[in-house]
Write a structure and sequence with these properties.
Blueprint: H1 2-11, E1 15-20, E2 24-29, E3 32-37, E4 50-54, H2 57-67, E5 70-72, E6 77-80, E7 86-91, H3 101-106, H4 116-124
Parallel strand pairs: 4-7
Antiparallel strand pairs: 1-2, 2-3, 5-6, 6-7
């Protein structure tokens, strides 16, 4: 777990919320919460993944390059961590996901907008961005 926290800390900013023994850690990444557990009991595969929303996908790509991560060739940004977990990284302004103004303000991201395509997706769902 110490290695995972160190590795993910090179790629993302997060705060360690707490640990349970040597095999479990809880981290806050902005308004996202992750529970990390070890050891892995099943083999890795290329289909299952989890996604993280970031405000600067290219900064994450650079950090992944610096960390020597395996970048999966896709139209977005997906990587495989050293333990075989697939992680997809999406940029907030490009997706039809909204954070409240209070969350944006607390994260220092006031005024963070949406791309035209993300606004169109939101309007199609009758959500006014």
């Amino acid at each position: 777990m110490d290695q995972a926290l160190e590795w993910y800390g090179r790629v993302f900013r997060f705060e360690l919320r707490g640990r349970v023994g040597r095999h479990m850690a809880f981290v806050d990444m902005g308004d996202q919460f992750l529970a990390l557990s070890a050891p892995r009991r099943q083999p890795g595969d290329g289909d299952r993944h989890f996604g993280l929303v970031v405000d600067d996908k290219e900064a994450v790509r650079r950090a992944l390059d610096d960390a020597g991560a395996e970048i999966v060739p896709t139209r977005g940004l997906r990587f495989v961590d050293p333990w075989g977990n697939n992680v997809e990284v999406v940029q907030y302004d490009e997706i039809q996901f909204l954070k409240s103004e209070a969350v944006l303000r607390a994260m220092g991201l006031e005024g963070l907008g949406k791309t035209a395509s993300a606004r169109a997706e939101l309007r199609a769902k009758r959500i006014d961005p």
